[in-house]
Amino acid sequence: MASITTILLSILLAVLVYRLVNNLIRSRRKLPPGPRQWPVIGNLPHLGPAPHQTMAALARKHGPLMHLRLGQVDVVVAASASVAAQFLKTHDANFSSRPPNSGAKHIAYNYQDLVFRPYGQRWRLLRKITSVHLFSGKALEDFRHVRQEEVAVLISALANTGSTAVNLGQLLNVCTVNALGRTMLGYRVFGDGSGKSEPRADEFKSMVVEVMVLAGVFNIGDFVPALDWLDLQGVAARMKKLHNRFDAFLTTIIEEHKANVGKGKHTDLLSTLLSLKDDAEGEDEKLTDTEIKALLLNMFTAGTDTTSSTVEWAIAELIRHPKILAKVQEELDRVVGRDRLVSELDLAQLTYLQAVMKETFRLHPSTPMSVPRMANESCEINGYHIPKGTTLLVNVWAIARDPAEWTDPLEFRPERFLPGGEKAQVDIRGNDFEVIPFGAGRRICAGMSLGVRMVQLLTATLVQAFNLGLPNGLVPEKLNMDEAYGLTLQRAAPLMVHPQPRLDQHLY
Prior knowledge:
Elements (H helix, E strand, L loop, with lengths): L1 H27 L22 H12 L2 E6 L2 E6 L2 H10 L11 H5 L14 H14 L2 H6 L1 H16 L6 E2 H17 L14 H17 L4 H4 L11 H25 L9 H11 L9 H14 L2 H16 L1 H14 L15 H13 L9 E2 L4 E3 L2 E3 L4 E4 L1 H4 L48 H18 E4 L13 E2 L5 E2 L4 E6 L7
Parallel strand pairs: 2-7
Antiparallel strand pairs: 1-2, 3-11, 4-7, 5-6, 8-11, 9-10
């Protein structure tokens, strides 16, 4: 008995000595500056309801490379283009994994998906599969007609609203989910696209909405692991329940596809994924059913709401700026004409529209705070020590509004991206860190090319097909542009519009 007690005391002493030495080492290494911390909870009280905004304000005081302590987790925040480039370019390999979080554990098949999976061989396989089979130029071209058909369905639905004001964001979400559903699964998820109720569609929609809600909830257990088992907010329990609903839904979809193999009924991307599962060379190249379901989950949660919310912001900005709207419509009338709807093939010629979309991505990034990354090893950034295991947050929203990078950063000014403008050569695809709505480096958004196409096509078609008025005599200057923070940067108030057709009736 005495020997066991001695062993336990020795272990306890070793742990205490290790922590003491570790803290001494940390204290001698210069961490980035940051606000003072509260006991136990650290800087959690500083975040508030809109962390992207409060962290931007803190960065103005403490600098663009800032250290926070959230509970027991070290966090560094990058709030300038140059600092972001240090993390996402120079030290990209070191920050290629994700920190643990309850959403990935309980909803995303315990890190079996593409978004949250640890960096390594399996992640590279999933990334390769999505790059080749889902988001390559050929794959996007093969399903171009699907996206254009679903946008045409949206236009028809808007043209038939009469004098009723419509929730534009809601219909945009139906359109994007249906376009993705037809591409991934072979059928519309939300019925006929008109927004009418359908039980299976309503069930799926409720699950996607709940994912967005839970993803925006601060879960104490992620930052204070000792309290994780208590699930004080009931978040983990809700996540587990939601996972079971998603799993049942996705399992049914996969089983239906398996039953139709060889019958020629499906020409969708899920069929491609299933063929890779069965026909891949070597066990290391085969997908599991769990990985396929996790990929589907990624597509429908990360690839729909982001698109619809960005288009909603774009239309709101154009309504608020009638002169800019008139320039976009003039370009569409000149390049496309008024006797047909704009297509994806026209987008490359619509220079001013592309500038409008870049400015929308700048001011209203769909993900205002990057999906977190984690330091695999300790490193030094700009002379500061970044400890191993530190969580990295890139404040995409703050970088795109940095007055050191942008003239009049709060103004909606597409001309800044045109030839002769201050940022004429800046792209949004992860190479220019002043505006990185899709992230950058190894973990850049896999669906970026699809997202850009869909956002441009939807915005162009809406502006070409309609004059969008505001209800109840609301003047454009008074349109509410407040943000609601969550997984995606939503409008605090939905955009309600009166669509007034501006083309010949047969186009609707």
